[in-house]
Amino acid sequence: MSLSLCLDRAAMAYDLRGVFEQAAGALKEDPRRGLKPISQALGVERHTVERAFQLKTGEPFRSFRRELLLERSMGLLASKRTASVKEVAFLLGYKSERAFARFIRNALGCCPCELRKQLTSSARRAHKVPAQIEGPGSTRKRRSGPLPRPLRRVLPSLPKPATPVPSCSKAPHVCP
Predict the structure, then answer these.
(1) pLDDT digit string, tens, across residues 121-156
(2) Has residue 26 been placed in a domain?
């Protein structure tokens, strides 16, 4: 290791803005990356990275990482409509569909297939493409009310659904 690289790392330990920018860049490349590997790659202690995130964003590293992962999840669910939820989970680095579904349910209060329906119906409304309307004999349960709070914070421009989105009829842990 060269002396200039050591000096850069030593100076960066005191430059929390630089620590934040490099750690945030690493997270944007791979939001599944943890605090320990990022701090090791930067050559600083974990608490230094934590402090940089708290100072710059007002929230801890874990919350920032979770929001990035939610954004990436929602982007993939909306853009890869033909991909199964399992494929999206593996693209994001989850080892199982259940773990991904649990993450989405804990963060947003709905399963990934419900989220996909919300995102695609919002995209249809934004492009003024009429969504299919279910007939009066439909037995599907409908979710009512506004979007969950974390979803509104991550995507504030997402309009409120005009009609409730059908709930997933599958088991609570896995979607098709």
Answers:
(1) 876 666 543 444 333 443 434 344 444 455 445 554
(2) yes
Q: Give the total number of structural domains in the chain.
A: 2
Shared domain for 48 and 105, answered yes or no, is no
- Phi, psi at residue 165, to the nearest 5°? -90, 140
Q: What are the E-state strand segments in the chain?
A: 142-143, 165-166
With contact defined as beta carbons under 8 Å apart, do 143 and 110 qualify? yes
Instruction: Tell the burial category of 135 from Cβ atoms under 10 Å away from its Cβ (0-12, 13-18, 19+).
Output: exposed
What kind and span of H or E run contains 88?
A: helix 85-91
Residue numbers in the chain where pLDDT is lower than 50:
1-7, 12-13, 128-148, 151-152, 156-166, 173
> 3-state DSSP call for residue 165?
strand
Task: Return the structure tokens found at 5.
Answer: 């690289």
